[in-house]
Design brief:
The chain has one domain: Alpha-Beta Barrel (TIM Barrel). It is 45% helix and 15% strand. It contains 12 helices and 8 strands. An 8-stranded parallel barrel has the order 1-2-3-4-5-6-7-8, surrounded by 7 helices. α3 links the parallel β3 and β4. α1 packs across α2 and α1 packs parallel to α12. It is globular and about 45 Å long. Bound molecules: phosphoenolpyruvate. The site of phosphoenolpyruvate has 14 residues, from β8.
Length: 249
């Protein structure tokens, strides 16, 4: 059986002192959960968050990285740097990075490869725009993004990747995909992985849903056949709300 994973994406929010206070408050609220708990925090919060989460079941991730190990890339942070301080996870190809920072399926693929080479676990994001959905192209778009994100990766490498299906129209808008729509989209990603690899790989990969997940809709979404948890933006900034999502059962 696949485990459930709840990952928070703080985006560009939380100062280090706020991050530490949040993790201290969250720790007792989630200590008994069977689910994996991840917080993807801004770069400046990483070290403080890692220290505060030591000896807890809360794992820490970054929200982006560069694909090169080092060099003349002013303002960038590499996978090797993230690994060196103990980061375990990294979000790759979030739609906000694709939209505002010109990330493409090609850079997403390069970053996933670099993350894996540095023993980081990527949470790769895919999702369609409202126009693509209304044109009936949602499944085509997300299966193509999945294929390109995973290009040249072996099935052994796939076991260290999670994919988050995040319909762009549902991110930060308060609009959530129905659990049936979200489950169907995620099922189509699983089927694509079965085509690219095999049934066992498809059955074991963790696939998350993201897009206005809240305490009140988390149980319905996360108890469908194919959704293995969530990537949570806005609601991951409120400790009680986030703890309820983690403890959705
Ligand atoms: C996200 O940032 O990945 C996200 C899903 O945001 P929200 O939950 O706020 O829609």
């Amino acid at each position: 059986m696949r485990k459930k994973v709840i990952a928070g994406n703080w985006k560009m929010n939380m100062l280090p002192n706020e991050a530490m206070a949040f993790i201290e408050a969250l720790t007792p609220m989630v200590k008994d959960t069977p689910n994996e708990v991840i917080l993807c925090v801004p770069y400046v919060d990483l070290f403080y968050s890692l220290l505060t989460s030591q000896n807890t079941n809360i794992k820490i991730g970054a929200q982006n990285m560069h694909w090169e190990e080092k060099g003349a890339y002013t303002g960038e942070v590499s996978g090797k740097m993230l690994k060196s301080i103990g980061v375990e996870y990294v979000i790759i190809g979030h739609s906000e990075r694709r939209q505002y920072f010109a990330e493409t399926d090609e850079t997403v693929n390069k970053k996933i490869k670099a993350a894996l080479a540095n023993e980081l676990k990527p949470i790769a994001c895919v999702g369609e725009t409202l126009e693509q959905r209304e044109a009936g192209k949602a499944i085509e778009v997300i299966t193509e993004q999945t294929k390109l994100a995973l290009q040249d990766l072996t099935k052994e490498q796939i076991s260290n990747i999670m994919i988050a299906y995040e319909p762009i129209w549902a991110i930060g808008t308060g609009k959530t995909a129905t659990s049936e729509d979200a489950n169907n989209a995620i099922k189509s990603i699983r089927q694509e992985i079965e085509k690219l690899y095999d049934t066992q790989t498809a059955e074991s990969i963790i696939l998350l849903y993201g897009g206005s997940v809240k305490a009140e809709n988390s149980k319905e979404l996360f108890t469908t056949s194919d959704i293995d948890g969530g990537l949570v933006g806005g609601a991951s900034l409120k400790v009680e709300e986030f703890s309820k999502i983690v403890n959705f059962q």
